[in-house]
Amino acid sequence: MAKINLTVNGKKTTGDVEARVLLANFLRDELKLTGTHVGCDTSQCGACTVHVDGRAIKSCTMLAVQADGADVVTIEGLAKNGKLHPAQAAFTECHALQCGFCTPGIS
Which pTM value belongs to this model? Predict the structure, then answer.
């Protein structure tokens, strides 16, 4: 097990993870941030996309231990002070959602 320290959606967090745990699984299973999805198992769909240190990353291709010390923003962290992120607001205003499964990767 490895101990990791990271900031997720502005909140410092730590966790003990096995070296093979994907960032997507750590976010969903350990932190209960279920907006991040593993959709295709081939890193093609983008449903697992999160921001790591300001860069869009497919969290199904990154190990949680690789995020040690990083600043991670998930779909849950885009809204600020109760106000939707402009991309989220545009989706709502334009009725752009279908099932919403891949929305994290699009926003």
Answer: 0.85
